[in-house]
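User: Here's a chain of 331 residues. Predict its fold as tokens.
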Amino acid sequence: MAKFGVIGAGSWGTALAVLLHSNGHEVDLWSRNSEVIYNLINERANRKYLPKVVIPEGIKIEADLNKTVRAKDGLLIGVPSHAVRSVINQFGEIDEETIIISLAKGIENDTLLRVSQILNEKFNADKIAVLSGPSHAEEVSRGVPTLVVCASSNLSTSEWVQKTFMSSEFRVYVHNDVIGVEVGGALKNVVAVAAGIIDGVGAGDNTKAALITRALAEITRLGTKLGADSLTFAGLSGMGDLIVTCMSKYSRNRHLGEEIGKGKTLEQVLSEMVMVAEGVKTTRSAYELAAQHEVEVPIITEAHNVLFQDKDPKQAVYDLMTRAAKSEDWG
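Assistant: Prediction complete.
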């Protein structure tokens, strides 16, 4: 039995808390939201983020961050990527051997850092792992068979995560390409926004399939420029996560894009959403990263233009379709 602290009681943090508890581990689940804390303690339900899941009595609900991180074998960082820095800076003392597991899929604005890079400013890189892949919390919480990948610069760290998380319903592969796994997990949210826009303007399956395929080429180009292995993007954190996030009814990023494609403004859609769509902030970071490294990313660029420059979604689709003729370049 291992001792875990889950930082962030959103849908994904809650689902993994339940999973780890069912695997026989001791779990503390932390939230800063008083309403969520009340429901978790008194109703054993997360009505705001994962309403149909019963929270086992054995999971301790915690409002004290320092108690949550103290004397743990593993800490799951389940807050949105833009909140990671502020939350970990509030941590009290943690054990040197504690494994830090990032669940966030985003790239920090301004610094353009991946989440593991933010964590590495405070913690030992050998103790940091990244969990990614096609894994909607709604399905994991129902025991739907799910496969993910855990990446770390230290094989023993990723293997420990694999061992503690694995079940008959949740399969974990290990990987050493932290950059590739994080870039794939973050940029697929940007593409999911674009896929939602495709849905919103009324384009069809042909269009979405082409979008996913060509977006994967963009992710691969940018990721390899940042130091990733191109083959990583053919795996669970690349192609796998891209497919599910662009197609699923559970995808908040796809939903956001669809509403914008139907004519709503970004501000309108964000005001109506309960959960965070990581793709919005990451679109800005991805656009700036690509410019910084001189990588051509037309789909990411048009998503950026629609979100932040008020470009008409139909015009963005038209401009993508009428770009200069090219060979199919995957490099």
